[in-house]
Amino acid sequence: MNKFGFVLHPLAAHDVARKYPPLKYLPDSWVEGLLNRMGPQFVSQITDLRSATGATADGCFVGCMTTSRQLVQWPPERAYARILGAIDLAARWGARIVGLGAFTAVVGDKGITLADRAAVAITTGNSYTVYTAIEGARKAAELMGLRVAESRAAVLGATGSIGRACALLLAPEVGALSLVGRRPEALDAVAEEVLGETGARPETFTDVPAGVRDADIVLAVTSATEAIIGPDDVKPGAVVCDVARPRNVARAVAEERDDVLVIEGGAVAVPGEGFDFGFDFGFPPGLAYACMAETMILALEGRFEDYSLGPELQLGQVREMGALAVKHGFRLAGFRCFERTVPDEEIARKRERAGR
Questions:
Q1: Count of domains in the chain?
Q2: Torsion angle of the four alpha carbons 345, 166, 207, 217, in this order, in degrees rounded to the nearest 10
Q3: Which of 33, 201, 282, 333 fits as disulfide partner to 267, beta carbons 3.0 to 4.6 Å?
Q4: In terms of domains, do 160 and 116 share one?
Q5: Crossing angle of helices 344-353/126-143, nearest 10°?
Q6: pLDDT in tens, 19-30
């Protein structure tokens, strides 16, 4: 049997209150203290995930009861121990490959150490995340009346594994490219790689507003634990694709800018009508994050091997995952913004407000 697991965690302390409502009255530090005493939690089980090829797989979702802030601030060894506990729980259930969700895929060396220590195959899901982010941004730009080949794109978090891959794949498609990150030396290294691989010469920025100010297309893929893009940072008519969790884009951008299209990156339609995952992670039935979908696709394909690991994603794996998604019937879902569907009529209004 093709079985997979996927590790989730609360992005912030207030997310824990979704499952345990009384905790919403406690300070965040108290909630995190309680989480420290909790082991991994079995969240749900799904059965008979069916590919377009007829292949099937079963899966389980396991909670690593640790917030984003804790995973970032703890020493890597402490974070590894928490995440490995969740991986082991999925393995005992029978999973042969386990996907890492949100910050469990970011800790330390981005899955390499966890894969070395786990008894099962590990994927961060980042390859399909990159593929869907670019596909979604491209389609959204076209709907907003942008000519992608003449547009400036900005990648926030360009020195990370997802950001670097996005930069390399976007560079040949766009008119100009901005790379935004915290470390100048790392930005310069990515810029040199982009130039060597594609011939495009990107600009680099360490200041977020400066880096996105002139961008028509913004891909936000940083590991920041709070929003870093505000309503005054983006130009009229821009498309902002927020791939990060927690979100990089403030809710106010979507609420106050009726001339800007904000979309969530990585929303994927799973084969089968309204497939039910057995718990609420903010998407309606039948939709999954791309990182979840990558884990499912590898299980359906019978590829129980480590995938999408480390700080430098292999572009070959990104392209392969896009092809495997089509083979098994996974596809980019309609656009979503802060847990709601963005209808075509709304996009048309934003395009009109932008003067296109």
A1: 2
A2: -20
A3: 333
A4: no
A5: 60
A6: 778 888 888 888
